[in-house]
Amino acid sequence: MSSHTPDLPTPARRTVVTGAAALAAAGFVAAPTPAQAHGHGHHHGRPTTRLTVLGTTDLHGNVLNWDYFKNTEFDNAKHDDIGLAKAATLIKAARKALGHQPVLTLDAGDTIQGTPLAYYYARIDPITGGATHPMARAMNLVGYDAAALGNHEFNYGIDTLRTFESQLDFPLLGANAVDPATKRPVFPPYVIKRYRPKHGPALTVGVLGLTNPGIALWDKANVEGRMEFPGLVEQARKFVPELKRRGCDVVVVSAHSGADTSSSYGDTLPYPENAASLVAEQVPGVDAILVGHAHQEIAQRYVTNTTTGRQVLLCEPLYWGMRVAVMDLDLELHRGRWRVVASHSQTLNSNTVDGDPAVLAAVRGQHETVVAYVNSPVGTSTTALSAERAVVEDVPIIDFVQYVQADAVKAGLTGADAALPVLSIAAPFNRAASFPSGQVTVRDVAGLYIYDNTLLGVRVTGAQVKDYLEYSARYFQQVSGPGPFTMAQVTNQPTDTAPNGTPDYNFDTVAGLDAPLTYDIDIAQPVGSRITGLAYDGVPVAPDQEFAMAVNNYRQSGGGGFPHVSTAPVVYNRQNEIRQLLIDWVTAHGTIDPAQFASVDWRLVSGGQPVTIS
């Protein structure tokens, strides 16, 4: 590892600075307070002050600016940098620049899942066995006042989450993670902070934490019967008045919920997934919301509260530590109480600074351990395999996922279900995934399956399999003639729920284990009439024929809105992570040989003729 120093900048790419110069380079503009504009500490003869909220969100286990699967410094098309170490530099510089004025530092959730660094301390050397989570080490050094729970906090079970919580120097807030019996929050719903401005009385600030109601679906196996997740608006309506009763002059919400009202789970829950704007609009008394979950950048947005007519400030600082939110709330003293009279926000870019030395030092050893782990060989591949064309043809590397999933489900079926033929669903998560010919590492395998999904088996009928495939085939744009077309001309069809194009991860194919499931996708036909020639072992699939189908927990819980699988009887659920099953399979068998699992079972056609795609 000594040859890699991921916190060092690439000189050709950027100039890196620290301190006040860092803030200027990151785009920090300190707007004048009313006091500065109208003389010191007073405006219209009234005392004034400013509360600044610094915020991060969706860090997803990123501390260093490092891509573990590529084994190099992180980079993307926009040359963003990632990681809490860089965000920490901006946060500390901002605090220093703001001097003695009130500053609040918050996170909006999704902290302990998303990188091999996070995975390693959840599963390989788990924090439940005594290790300290690298995110806890890093966040404690930053000095957060509070963080909201994200949905991914629940991926590794409640024991891991509670252990992580115990390692933090600040509270994890979740007003809408409640006990099923009492309906009271099982995490602190809020925290109250008090500040002493230069002039006037103490300033009392309430921070309300809200998480995502989708947890009830996505992590059903971990939370069912133990926690419930009512809507953000519903719980904010309970707790904002409570904060006001407890003397809060200002209420800031940290919400793991996007600003643009939408949902990835259709109508399976009574509460919207992305509800931050609804809280601003429908709950009186909220002054500002740090937004998370949607992985968007919102530098500044105002939502008018329909009851009070007041403007509520929203800011979302992208994800993975790429940005830091700076939200300024200007306050004046009215009748002995502080009141927000103006607000504005901006986001600072982490690619302008070096990583904070204290944070880097605190996780260096754990980072190096994980780099060694992901680069360790687990087996060999007889040939090079690539996912590059997985969205338009049946490729062996996706067949490998299907095979391992179906094999695990088959081994776990009991009773009458053990006689069912086994199918599997898989989607091309990462077109860049590949196995080299020769040695294959953990990193190679993990790059093929980039989500922490667990495996389930459900019982479905032939008619349901056909419906499922028809729904999946919405991914393709309708074309006429056999081409040639480019991949972009036939894939990622926009829909109502995916206006920017159906993502690759919502294109599922279905494969058989002991016999092939074969079909054509006719992309000249309209959505709903595209699957032709569906057969199992060469025999047309009967509508009432029964199968066990390997699916991931995201699909089984309603993710993507695919039909039948969320209501189908569950015949297998051992909470095994699919990525780990793939790694374990390679470790156990030593050799990945496509001859063992690969076959071309589906193809794209137009009017029955094979389509040519360049």
Rounded radius of gyration (Å): 26 Å
CATH topology of the largest domain: Purple Acid Phosphatase, chain A, domain 2
Total DSSP E strands: 30
CATH superfamily of the largest domain: Metallo-dependent phosphatases
- Low-confidence sequence ranges: 1-16
Main β-sheet description: 7 strands, mixed
Family: Belongs to the 5'-nucleotidase family.
Signal peptide: 1-37
Keywords: Hydrolase, Metal-binding, Multifunctional enzyme, Nucleotide-binding, Signal
Catalytic activity: a ribonucleoside 3'-phosphate + H2O = a ribonucleoside + phosphate; a nucleoside 2',3'-cyclic phosphate + H2O = a nucleoside 3'-phosphate + H(+)
Structural write-up:
It is a single chain. The protein has 17 helices and 30 strands. It has 614 residues and is α/β, with parallel strands linked by helices. It is elongated, with a radius of gyration of 26 Å. 25% of the residues lie in helices and 26% in strands. The two termini are 40 Å apart. The model is unreliable at 1-16 (pLDDT under 50). Strands 1, 2, 5, 6, 7, 14 and 15 form a seven-stranded mixed sheet that branches. It has a six-stranded mixed sheet with strand order 8-9-10-11-13-12. The protein folds into two domains: 19-371, 4-Layer Sandwich (Purple Acid Phosphatase, chain A, domain 2), CATH 3.60.21.10; 376-610, Alpha-Beta Complex (5'-nucleotidase,  domain 2).
